[in-house]
């Protein structure tokens, strides 16, 4: 029986959900309700004017004074609050009144669409911790023994960390310049680093370092505290590798079995993405109307430009000056792997072709390729790290109506780096890791639904960048790894 590919299913459900949501927003997106009974103490009447872009509360108090409160749900609209989360904290009784009696039909049903779509997001959160743990342990234990954790490992790891950070900061710079989540906003808040804010950066960095050192690893798994989980899992894997013998074999077997099961679960959950996209798109468009698509277009442009800059400027410069290789010729040699990565959106699935291309077409030795590429497919995710940083900052702009503070953007960069290490090399796996970053800066996880519709298209681009970075890393490491007379790499046993 004919079955549409997953990305086509997501596209169809995105369009269907958007059309139904827009229809609901157009036909039932506005309501005006005047209430004079069951009001909070001190109020004589409350008129609630609810539209897609703003909700206005016209209040008349018992002392005859009047007050108007505006909750602007669009960056195009000025208001006292940018979302109902802020409004609920300041006026809990009015928020309860609105939910129970003042919502337009579009907002009422939109809330239910959101709850149903959140079931999909809860499934993603469910597999996040075991996926991180099993993926990291399996990747590190697959290095083949403590003797290989020498200079080659350190050089490879240094390259991966540096390029991932460069990718993240490229994305952060562009998302602050383009401001995709603030398109059309009047006078968005600009964050300028002051002396007090700069002083807080040191505290922020130290807090992140503290978060990486769990006083109770089991509690970190239950909470979950993702920074602690990643740091402890890396340490556990490295020391298990150093012990070696039956201990290392047992840990590796357990990790591989766990990873196989969790990957199967993750793949099954991701098959539900069309359903999640359908309801989340209905929620977004029924409550926000067509305005959300303008920001979404700028968001896609921001991600595309950042990925393009990293892949055609940053990585080729490293390839040219560090590895002494011609970037154009090297890219031609790796074209089969890069095109396969783009079409499949899976760096793990592309790995066999990547290894074949880099050895047969690019002339990199097997001892370097067999070490660098599998490790890179596990922990080197330049494109994913860049994408997640841009996505979270875009969501923050849409949610708050202004840029995150510099200290919070630093948290996003740091968390995106660690989250990309734990991302599996399968399509849409970055969705699981994004939950970590959203939670790190206290953004609602359901806001992820805004970008789910275009995730597949961007996933193809960021996977190609992931594989391209792995290939460039092979060339860089090969430059510093000369074989000994007995054929053993000079770094082994270092």
Distance linking N and C termini = 56 Å
Please indicate the percent range of residues in DSSP E strands (runs of 2 or more): 5-15%
Helix and strand content put the structural class at: mainly alpha
Mean pLDDT: 78
Pick out the low-confidence regions.
184-201, 484-494
For the largest sheet, list the strands in their spatial order.
1-2-3-4
How do the SSEs run, as a string of H and E? HEEEEHHHHHHHHHHHHHHHHHHH
The number of helical segments is: 20
How many β-strands, per DSSP?
4
User: What is the general shape?
Assistant: elongated
- Gyration radius, rounded: 25 Å
The biggest sheet amounts to:
4 strands, antiparallel
């Amino acid at each position: 029986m004919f079955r549409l590919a997953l990305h086509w299913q997501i596209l169809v459900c995105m369009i269907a959900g958007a059309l139904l949501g827009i229809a609901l927003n157009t036909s039932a997106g506005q309501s005006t309700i005047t209430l004079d009974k069951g009001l909070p103490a001190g109020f004589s009447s409350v008129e609630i004017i609810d539209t897609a872009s703003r909700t206005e509360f016209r209040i008349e108090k018992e002392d005859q004074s009047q007050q108007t409160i505006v909750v602007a749900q669009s960056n195009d609209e000025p208001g006292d609050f940018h979302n109902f989360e802020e409004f609920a904290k300041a006026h809990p009784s009015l928020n309860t009144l609105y939910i129970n009696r003042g919502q337009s039909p579009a907002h009422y049903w939109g809330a239910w669409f959101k709850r149903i779509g959140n079931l999909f997001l809860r499934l993603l959160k469910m597999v996040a911790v075991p996926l991180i743990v099993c993926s990291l342990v399996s990747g590190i234990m697959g290095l083949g023994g403590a003797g290989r954790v020498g200079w080659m490992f350190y050089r490879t790891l240094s390259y991966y960390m540096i390029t991932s950070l460069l990718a993240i900061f490229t994305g952060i710079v562009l998302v602050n310049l383009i401001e995709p989540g603030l398109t059309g906003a009047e006078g968005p808040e600009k964050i300028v680093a002051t002396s007090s804010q700069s002083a807080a950066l040191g505290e922020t960095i130290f807090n992140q370092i503290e978060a990486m050192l769990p006083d109770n690893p089991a509690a970190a798994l239950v909470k979950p505290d993702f920074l602690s989980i990643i740091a402890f899992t890396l340490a556990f894997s490295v020391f298990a590798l150093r012990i070696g013998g039956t201990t290392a074999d047992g840990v590796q077997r357990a990790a591989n079995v766990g990873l196989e099961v969790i990957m199967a679960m993750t793949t099954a959950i991701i098959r539900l993405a069309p359903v999640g996209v359908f309801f989340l798109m209905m929620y977004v468009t029924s409550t926000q109307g067509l305005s959300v698509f303008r920001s979404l277009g700028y968001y896609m442009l921001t991600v595309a430009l950042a990925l393009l800059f990293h892949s055609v400027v940053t990585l080729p410069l490293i390839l040219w000056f560090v590895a002494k290789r011609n970037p154009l010729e090297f890219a031609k040699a790796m074209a089969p792997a890069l095109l396969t990565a783009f079409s499949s959106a899976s760096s793990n699935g592309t790995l066999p072709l990547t290894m074949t291309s880099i050895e047969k077409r690019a002339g990199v030795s097997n001892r370097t390729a067999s070490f660098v590429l599998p490790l890179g497919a596990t922990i080197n995710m330049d494109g994913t790290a860049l994408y997640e940083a841009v996505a979270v900052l875009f969501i923050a702009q849409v949610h708050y109506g202004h840029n995150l503070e510099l200290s919070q953007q630093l948290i996003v960069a740091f968390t995106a780096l660690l989250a990309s290490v734990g991302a599996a090399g399968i399509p849409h796996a970055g969705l699981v890791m994004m939950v970590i970053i959203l939670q790190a800066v206290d953004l609602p996880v359901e806001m992820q639904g805004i970008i789910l519709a275009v995730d597949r298209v961007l996933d193809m681009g960021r996977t190609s960048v992931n594989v391209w970075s792995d290939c460039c890393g092979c060339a860089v490491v090969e430059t510093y790894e000369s074989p000994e007379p007995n054929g053993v790499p000079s770094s082994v046993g270092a």
